[in-house]
Design a protein that fits this description.
The complex is a heterodimer. Chain A has one domain: Non-ribosomal Peptide Synthetase Peptidyl Carrier Protein, Chain A (Orthogonal Bundle), CATH 1.10.1200. Chain A is 56% helix and 0% strand. Chain A is built from 7 helices and no strands. The mean pLDDT of chain A is 92. By secondary structure, chain B is of the alpha/beta class. Helices cover 42% and strands 14% of the residues of chain B. A 7-stranded parallel beta sheet of chain B has the order 3-2-1-4-5-6-7, sandwiched between helices. In chain B, 49% of the residues are buried. The chains are: A mainly alpha, B alpha/beta. The interface between A and B is small, with 9 and 7 residues.
Chain lengths: 136, 263
């Protein structure tokens, strides 16, 4: 299968998982929608979404993996500065997993606590597809 | 084909902690009779656990003895993992392992309280945690906690035991609410007085006649009474029931005092 076919299949599993876990209509869940800010997901909802994805795809992702994936293995002290604002290095990593970020506008202004509020349905699907690709 | 047969629990795998004797033994036998493959957990009573497994096999069922002290978090994880490895899955967890260290508060030492809490409530917490990834991943799991009417009422000499069962009851309600959306049901069975080794001390005086007079049904719970309620809560017939505390007590909990004056 091509990577696009895999990505489409994964999105086909992620979309209903998000809609069902959050009790939303299919149309409300768009690839661009942010999970926490726009769709209102809380911690327990994220767990529910991940277990639903696991059941549909067999790909197991734990809640802790999400933050690790976003941070890309960069140590905390390099990811955020002393005021817990994301560093340039951190922002470059975030741009890889959240390509929609306007890194120019966010440079020096993104608090670490706000990072996950930018994570979209498409970002989640890409993460799951990445796991599928690596067989993890 | 985990347990074989045609019962409500065919194709299901169950784990019964403390399954080698008393109520746990009866629950293991009843779950197997309903079609489940059963992991019979024991801490020290290997021969008793093997006897339960043999009895289930003689009845045409499937079971395996699974050693482990569920009051220890790591061992509880291993007990669940061994059950999954043995039967290829897990769908029903009966948290039954329990001990008693009855004493008047004046004479109860801190270890009496800690031991009872660690086994009775700690075992519930540890095994629930251990089973959760499996249950949530398959969006299918049932937990039945063996509690006691002691968790809802008072009795002299039972402060530590009653507190551990009260903790189980509170945990049951919270876990049911939290886990419902993950396809996991959590309920508890609350036996009144059942003549097992655990309550032998309570029933020793006058052969339990004084206590029996306080039971509206005028009899103790047979372990099979408790097992039948457990099988019901473990199976599909209770599919919309979660967070409930089900007394199996002959009416003790419904009663205020002896319930009669001059009648």
């Amino acid at each position: 299968m091509t990577s696009q076919v895999v990505a489409d299949e994964i999105y086909g599993a992620v979309h209903p998982a998000v809609a069902e876990a959050l009790g939303l209509d299919d149309a409300e869940v768009t690839p661009e929608a942010t999970l926490m800010d726009q769709l209102g997901a809380e911690s327990i909802d994220l767990l529910d979404i991940l277990f639903r994805i696991e059941r549909a795809t067999g790909i197991k992702i734990e809640a802790g993996d999400l933050a690790e994936y976003v941070q890309g293995g960069i140590p905390d002290e390099e990811f955020g500065d002393e005021h817990d604002v994301i560093t340039a290095k951190g922002l470059a990593q975030l741009k890889k997993v959240m390509p929609q970020l306007d890194d120019g506008a966010l440079a020096g202004k993104l608090p670490a606590t706000q990072v996950m509020s930018h994570f979209t349905v498409a970002n989640l699907a890409a993460m799951v597809a990445g796991r599928a690709g690596t067989g993890r | 084909m985990p347990g074989g047969g045609t019962g409500d629990l065919r194709e299901r795998v169950a784990l019964v902690t403390g399954g080698s004797r008393g109520i746990g033994r009866a629950v293991a036998v009843a779950l197997a009779a309903a079609g489940a493959a059963v992991g019979v957990n024991y801490r020290e009573g290997e021969s008793a656990a093997r006897a339960v497994v043999a009895e289930i096999a003689e009845n045409g069922g499937t079971a395996a003895a699974i050693q482990g002290d569920v009051s220890d978090f790591d061992q509880a994880q291993a007990v669940v993992a061994k059950t999954v490895a043995e039967f290829g899955g897990l769908h029903v967890l009966v948290n039954n392992a329990g001990i008693a260290r009855d004493a008047l508060l004046f004479e109860m030492n801190p270890q009496d309280w800690l031991d009872v809490m660690n086994v009775n409530f700690g075992g519930v917490f540890n095994c629930t945690k251990a089973a959760l990834p499996q249950f949530a991943g398959q969006r299918d799991g049932v937990i039945v906690n063996m509690s006691s009417m002691m968790g809802e009422r008072g009795w002299t000499g039972e402060a530590n035991y009653a507190a551990s069962k009260g903790a189980i009851n509170a945990f049951t309600r919270c876990a049911a609410v939290e886990l419902a959306r993950f396809g996991v049901r959590v309920n508890a069975v609350l036996p009144g007085f059942s003549p097992t080794d655990l309550v032998a001390g309570l029933l020793a005086k006058d052969d339990g006649r004084t206590i029996k007079r306080q039971v509206p049904q005028r009899r103790f719970a047979a372990v099979e009474d408790v097992a039948e309620a457990t099988v019901f809560l473990a199976g599909p017939r209770s599919g919309h029931i979660t967070g409930t505390l089900l007394p199996v007590d002959g009416g003790v909990g419904a009663q205020l005092g002896l319930g009669r004056t001059n009648w």
